[in-house]
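Late entry, evening session. Most of the bench is empty. Finally got around to the prediction I had been postponing all week. Sequence below, unchanged from the version circulated by S.P.
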Amino acid sequence: MVQANSAAPCQWLAPAARSLRLPLVVHLHASYLTRSRYVCLLHLAHRIVGASQHALTGLREDGIPPGRTQVILNGVDAARLGIPGQGLRERLEIPQDAFVILAVGSLISRKRHHLLIDAVSRMSETSHLVILGEGELREPLEQRVRELGLSKRVHLPGSWPALASVYADVDCFALASYKETFGLVFAEAGLCSLPAVGVRGGGVTEVIEDGVTGLLVEEGTEESLSESLSLHLSALSQNEAQRSALGAAARARIAREFDGKRMVEGFHALYDQLVAVPPAQRGWSSIHLTPYLALRSRLKSSPHP
């Protein structure tokens, strides 16, 4: 059998697999626009696995048969995360009694780190934000930090060598990302007993259970998002009991539903199932036309330039 890890390789592997009557699995970690779904020939795959329900939304709207899609949630390596803190506060000169918020992600527009920076500007001076990652928006973000007078409270140290050790040195996790497909760092933080704050949408709601393992804010304008993030984070900073309860619930849920062994077993069972399908049912004659008829209908109803 053959497995494509993301959509792009599928455009070559799908015709090859169909011609050789080999089962093809495509593992999607992101959602794709309509054009990309068809150009990459995703509908020719024998099985499409999403890292979340959100990753499969477009394909299901295309009319792909339900039996050809499934979700296998990403697994988190508990052993890798069982590392004690390694002095993040000392290295960044953050007071031991400060409330520290951690964000992890590339410094790109989709992560919307500037909203967290704005949120911290509304919070108590004992609140600090650490953003780990590199990217094209480093300079604009640093400029925003300076403009808000937050140079001593917002820290952008770049990439961190032992990321797993950082979770033990902070009080909560937060990201303002726009429609994360899964948000593995939310799961990692949860397994380290950290409450998380995120924006409702995409696959984030599949990782954070609002009010149980973390807190979600509603999508909106930048002003409303910044204010909501500030309110949620401020509430956590003032309520250690709530942080502990959310963190404990997050650890239990992630360990139960996002276990690495469970992920491996899910793919093992899928491979066994697909390899057992007779080769005659894997060729070109077994293609389902529903997605292509749906596309034809869309094109006919669309206004032409």
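Two things to note before I forget:
DSSP finds 13 helices and ten strands in the chain.
The longest strand covers residues 99-104.
Will write this up properly tomorrow.
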